[in-house]
Amino acid sequence: MGELCVIRGIRGATTVEKDTEMEVIAAVEQLMAEIIRVNEIDPDMVASVFFSATDEIRSVFPAKALRKFEGWTYVPVTCMQEIPVSNSLPSCIRVMIHVNTTKSQKEIQHVYQAGAVVLRPDLTNKI
């Protein structure tokens, strides 16, 4: 009998210095490349991807960066605005990937880059 395949959430976040299309796309590409690499994600196993951004991010949909990755054309992706909580991390882009995998929750590698490492320092040093 094979391993049980279940859907897992993979989290990640990054920040940008300036809200420009070039900077947002570059930051999201870097974040997604690392999440895909460390979790060995096959896009055919991905159910959906949700991006959220703080209200300072208005130049481009972060999801646009994902379309540059081969094999991700048909993966459902959406963007939304992050809840504007007082004193929250500004200029932040977050991602939640829902992937079918045989990995346990503990084996999932969440990735936090740039200024977003402060969000989950307990997970950042796991890799």
From TrEMBL:
Top EC class for this record: isomerase
UniProt keyword annotation of Isomerase present: yes
PANTHER family: CHORISMATE MUTASE (PTHR21164), CHORISMATE MUTASE AROH (PTHR21164:SF0)
GO molecular function: chorismate mutase activity
GO BP terms in the entry: amino acid biosynthetic process; aromatic amino acid family biosynthetic process; chorismate metabolic process
Organism classification: Bacteria, Bacillati, Bacillota, Bacilli, Bacillales
InterPro entries linked: Chorismate_mutase_AroH, RutC-like_sf
Catalytic activity annotation: chorismate = prephenate
Residues annotated to bind prephenate: 11, 94, 112
Name this protein carries in UniProt: chorismate mutase
Database matches in Pfam families: CM_1
EC numbers, comma separated: 5.4.99.5
